[in-house]
Amino acid sequence: MTTCILALDLGTQTGWAIRLKDGQIISDSATFKPQRFEGGGMRYLRFRKWLTEIKQSGEIDAIYFEEVRRHIGVDAAHAYGGFMATLTSWCEHHQIPYQGVPVGTIKKHATGKGNASKAEMVAAATARGHTPTDDNEADALALLHWAIETQEVGA
């Protein structure tokens, strides 16, 4: 039996990939775009609810997320901070270990280049046999494979 690992590319369009205890990998992306007429915190409540739904698919042993240190815009930085705060507090509540992984580390592991483009990340995921719907899912898949291959989280 393997460990269940969840990998997240946090953002309004969150890419995710999970390796279940049976070794099966499932991935996609989920949108947490603010809805019309809702308060600013609702996207984070929906994200927390989504995390809880993912957890119901099986006990999560570890969560890895893409650690972004530089954002192009202020709004993206604020949204990322909200998602990261929601994720880390949720993990603490459920006693699930979590770790941020720098973007360059993920890209270098997936493509050999720490500054790989979105297209190169999608191509790397495709080369591993996945069919990502967007670059967010491709990033989550790359992060999941990094965790499986470099961290001591079980085979």
Briefly say what this structure is.
The chain is of the alpha/beta class and about 160 residues long. The chain contains 5 helices and 5 strands. It has a single domain, classed as Nucleotidyltransferase, domain 5 (2-Layer Sandwich).
State the separation between the terminal residues, measured CA to CA.
8 Å
Count the domains.
1
Q: How much helical structure, as a percent, in the residues?
A: 40-55%
The low-confidence parts are none
From the alpha carbons, calculate the radius of gyration and give it in angstroms.
15 Å
Content-based structural category: alpha/beta
Strand-residue fraction?
A: 15-25%
Give, in order, the helices and strands.
EEEHEHEHHH
CATH class: Alpha Beta
- List the total number of helices: 5
Query: Order of strands in the sheet with the most strands?
Result: 3-2-1-4-5
CATH architecture: 2-Layer Sandwich
Task: State the CATH topology.
Answer: Nucleotidyltransferase, domain 5
CATH superfamily: Ribonuclease H-like superfamily/Ribonuclease H
Summarize the biggest pleated sheet: 5 strands, mixed
Mean pLDDT: 92
Would you report the number of β strands? Answer: 5
Describe this entry's structure for a reader:
With 155 residues, this protein is α/β, with parallel strands linked by helices. The chain has a single domain, classed as Nucleotidyltransferase, domain 5 (2-Layer Sandwich), CATH 3.30.420.10. The protein has helices at 42-55, 74-94, 103-111, 118-127, 135-150, and strands at residues 5-9, 13-19, 25-31, 62-67, 98-102. Helix 1 (42-55) packs across helix 2, helix 3 packs across helix 5 (135-150) and helix 4 (118-127) packs across helix 5 (135-150). The longest helix has 21 residues, at 74-94.
